[in-house]
Every structure is written in structure tokens, then in C-alpha cells.
Amino acid sequence: MSDATLDDRGRLTLPKEIRERYGDSYHVVDVQDGIKLIPVADDPLEALRAEFADVDKTVDELRDQARDASLDEAGR
Questions:
Q1: Architecture of the domain made up of 1-40
Q2: Collapsing DSSP states into helix, strand and coil, what is residue 70?
Q3: Which of 61, 13, 60 has the alpha carbon at shortest distance from 37?
Q4: Which stretches of the chain are assigned E, i.e. beta strand?
Q5: What is the distance in angstroms between the CA of the first residue and the CA of the last residue of the chain?
Q6: Domain ranges (residues) in the chain
Q7: Is the CB of residue 48 less than 8 Å from the CB of residue 29?
Q8: Which of 16, 23, 43, 53 is deepest in the core (most CB within 10 A)?
Q9: Which keywords label this protein (predicted)?
Q10: Tens of pLDDT, residues 47-63
């Protein structure tokens, strides 16, 4: 963990190692106990494809699996 401070114009500079690891673009999300920075990929669609490249199920199969899991969790 590292610290960052706002400058007099309200800008936040992230440490170099964070920028090198996650990039230069972020969504700022207001959460209950603070804020969260979520890195935005240069090409979000390509990043999504890469994230799911090893998934061998169809969208319908994934949807059915998610529905079944949520029903099981709710106690059917």
C-alpha cells in the first residue's frame, strides 16, 4: 500500500509502480467507506475477450449456471 496526496488543484498523482502495473485510466467509484479506483483498459472489449478466452461454455450455459446458483443460494 502507498499513500497519495491531492495537490492544490485537486489532482491525485499515483505512484509510478501503480501506474506501471494498472495503467493511466481509472473509474472512480464511491463506495460506502471511501473510494475505489478501477483500472480501465486501453481497449476494454479486447480486455474482456482476453479475460474469458479460456471459457468454453456458451453465454446461455453461463447464464443458466448463474441462475441455478442464485436459486440455490436463495433456497429455491
A1: Ribbon (2.10)
A2: helix
A3: 13
A4: 26-31, 34-39
A5: 42
A6: 1-40, 42-76
A7: no
A8: 23
A9: DNA-binding
A10: 888 888 898 888 899 99
